[in-house]
Amino acid sequence: MMSGLVLYGTDISPPVRACKLVLRALGLDYEYKEVNLLAGEHKTEEYLKKNPQNTVPLLEDNGALIWDSHAIVCYLVDKYAKTDDLYPKDLLKRAQVQQRLYFDASVLFMALRNVSVPYFYHKVSVVPKEKVDNIKDGYAFLEAFLGDNPYVTGSTLTLADLCCGATASSLAAILELDVVKYPKVAAWLERLSKLPHYEEDNLPGLNAYISLLRPVLTLEH
Q: What digits encode the pLDDT tens for the residues 51-80?
């Protein structure tokens, strides 16, 4: 049995960065183990025993294994947080956070993944119009969710902001945010960037991700 928390990941991954932001917000010490996806380190026998889905992030907590960033961050708050601010126990408030987390998984991240995976593994550099439109839809939905609030579920920062923020900031690797069209999203991302240690936990991986993709992609409009 291992003692303490171990996060397996790679910094260019938005879900890994989301976990780092949550671990930081909770003030938790952890060991970080880099997994080189392009070198296939996530498909080794040792890694597959821990995570048969061969994805990052993967959290190991004293021998317990959890993967999928949303499952990880909810677990971390429920187990370790001193308050429920990031993931409210109130059922309605929690459902609203969950909706945004599912949105992150099924809309925002899939819009990103449907472009990045074909490029990273098959060198497909042309992005069809429908995939570009998926990115635009993600920005538009976030703009609507924010409304007149500073955060995506209302007046307080939650897991939804940290997860959606890590993904939404990464969409610029494909299509840069139009700050005139989506001013609330721009202001929200700027707000998140002011979080303690945001530069350390999100920015290096974000910049590396953008520099890997943006120069090589051709968008169809």
A: 999 999 999 999 999 999 999 999 999 999
Question: pLDDT tens, 131-186?
Answer: 999 999 999 999 999 999 999 999 999 999 999 999 999 999 999 999 999 999 99
Question: Smallest Cα–Cα separation from 86: which of 140, 19, 174, 167?
Answer: 19
The residue count of the chain comes to: 221
Encoded tokens for 128? 């069809």
CB 191 within 8 A of CB 198: no
Task: Please check whether residue 10 is in contact with residue 35, taking contact to mean a CB–CB distance below 8 angstroms.
Answer: yes
pTM over 0.90: yes
Are the CB atoms for 69 and 129 separated by under 8 Å?
no
Whole-Å CA distances, 93 to 88, 96, 145, 178: 6, 5, 14, 30
**What is the Cβ-side half-sphere exposure of residue 143, based on CA atoms within 13 angstroms?**
15
Give the residue carrying structure tokens 């990045």. Answer: 116
User: What is the signed CA dihedral for 100, 103, 109, 115, rounded to 10 degrees?
Assistant: -150
Whether cis (ω within 30° of 0) applies to the bond prior to 118 is no
Contact 6, 30 (CB under 8 A): yes
Q: Which residue carries 């700027």 as its tokens?
A: 190
Residues designated as active site: 13
What whole-number distance in Å separates Cα of residue 40 and Cα of residue 62? Answer: 25
